[in-house]
Write a structure and sequence with these properties.
CATH architecture of the largest domain: 3-Layer(bba) Sandwich
Structural class: alpha/beta
CATH class of the largest domain: Alpha Beta
CATH superfamily of the largest domain: FAD/NAD(P)-binding domain
CATH topology of the largest domain: FAD/NAD(P)-binding domain
Strand content: 25-35%
Number of domains: 3
Helix content: 10-25%
Shape: globular
Distance between the termini: 74 Å
Length: 425
């Protein structure tokens, strides 16, 4: 457990309001940056982090596991940064209670922290496999720095990864690179079934099989077998097969962490419910990130978390004119040598345009000649071009015949005529 800092600056501590931030993840860190930019002397700030680390980038855990970076390389906000900003940082001691009537929070180590404003950024927890044996030794998640350290310390092992989403694929590929025998179990017919169509998902599977990764598709985990001493030894599938395993990585989604808010009497559904200003029904308490529910939606990507942080910071800075409105966010896969890009709704009514080449695959969905969604696999060099068209919602009638070929073939007509004149001259 550590604690650092007290706010420095032109204002006197007694004149400042008290802001307590529960959570020290990426959403909380981005909010602190925004708040310090907008109102550097408005609050005495205390941050309480459950983990013993300063701020780090969870998105980079996959490259860290894969050996493409190190722990200093994923640190975004060092202990020194908090000291320099005059922020008190308490790590390794989670908040255990919120006293809304007295406006204070209490930590496991006994800190009693009064607040004028409270920000909840408690994040999410890995979803546990809903089967017998999920609590055995050797059943782990891939969610934080502790998980990565544990996985990096493994001797060559038989590993089964359950879940064919982004996290499961990134973990499986990284572990394969460390010499482990890795099998990935996925309940659906193709990988990344929420982000890719079947053609792209099949290509992805084939490319990863070429690297040595094994797959068991359309299979559900029915249970985990142990050796009689509490250690996992096999994954039991619902069709009767068993996969030998020294370690099982569960990557089957996340669950907003809402227990603290619920205990405090805040409204909780799928997540901590907030309005468009990221405020709970208690006007002194705000919430951002993977722990929240906004308009019946929860969140797992970084981009909306950062937008929430910016909106919330403006209200905490008492410059409250902004509102949070969710917009779809493109997704990318972080596996070296494999480029995947997806956004919007690529299935449904409308016209489907596809292009299959040895080095790539493109699928575009148009409705009324407007781009509604896409999947790019392999060559993603035109991703920004397509994303811009998707966000603009412009009529693409003039480019329909050449749209799949990318930006270079979709120049405005006047540019083409000018180019021809220059060539003729």
């Amino acid at each position: 457990m550590t604690g650092t800092g007290s706010r420095q600056g032109n204002s006197r501590p007694g004149d400042s309001k008290k802001l307590v931030v529960v959570g020290n993840g990426m959403a909380a860190c981005r909010l602190l940056e925004e708040l310090l930019r907008l109102a550097p002397d408005l609050y005495q700030i205390t941050v309480v982090g459950e983990e013993p680390f300063a701020g780090y980038n969870r998105v980079m855990l996959s490259p860290l596991l894969g050996g493409h970076t190190d722990e200093p390389g994923i640190t975004t906000h060092s202990h020194r940064w908090y000291r320099e900003q005059g922020i008190r940082l308490i790590t390794g001691s989670p908040v255990t209670a919120i006293d809304r009537h007295r406006r204070r929070v209490i930590t496991a180590a006994g800190h009693v922290l009064p607040y004028d404003r409270l920000l909840l950024a408690t994040g999410s927890a890995p979803r546990a496999l809903p089967v017998d044996g999920a609590g055995l030794q050797g059943v782990v998640s891939f969610r934080d720095l502790y998980d990565v350290r544990r996985l990096l310390a493994l001797p060559p092992s038989r590993i089964v990864v359950v879940g064919g989403g982004f996290l499961g694929l990134e973990a499986a590929e990284a572990l394969l690179g460390h010499g482990h025998s890795v099998t990935l179990v996925h309940s659906r017919g193709h990988l990344l079934n929420q982000q890719l169509d079947a053609a792209a998902g099949t290509r992805l599977q084939q490319d990863l099989e070429g690297r040595g990764l094994r797959f068991v598709m359309q299979a559900r985990t029915a249970g985990l077998r142990d050796n009689g001493r509490g250690q996992v030894t096999a994954v039991c599938l619902d069709d009767g097969r068993e996969l030998a395993a020294d370690l099982v990585v569960q990557a089957v989604g996340i669950v907003p962490r809402t227990a603290l808010a619920s205990q405090a009497g805040l409204t909780v559904g799928q997540g901590i419910r907030v309005d468009d200003t990221l405020q709970t029904f208690d006007p002194a308490i705000y919430a951002v990130g993977e722990c929240i529910e906004h308009r019946q939606r929860t969140f797992g990507l970084v981009a909306p978390l950062y937008e929430q942080a910016a909106v919330c910071a403006s209200h905490l800075a008492e410059l409250g004119h902004r509102r949070y409105l969710h917009t779809d966010t493109p997704t990318r896969l972080k596996i070296a040598g494999i480029d995947v890009y997806s956004c919007g709704r690529f299935d449904g009514e409308g016209d489907i345009l596809t292009l299959q080449l040895p080095g790539g695959y493109r699928r575009l969905r148009l409705c009324d000649n407007r781009l509604m969604g896409m999947v790019l696999y392999g060559d993603v060099s035109d991703a920004l071009f397509y994303e811009t068209l998707w966000r603009q919602g412009r009529d693409l009638s003039e480019w329909r015949q050449c749209l799949l070929l990318g930006e270079a073939f979709c120049q405005p007509a006047e540019h083409s005529e000018k180019d021809q004149e220059e060539l003729a001259a």
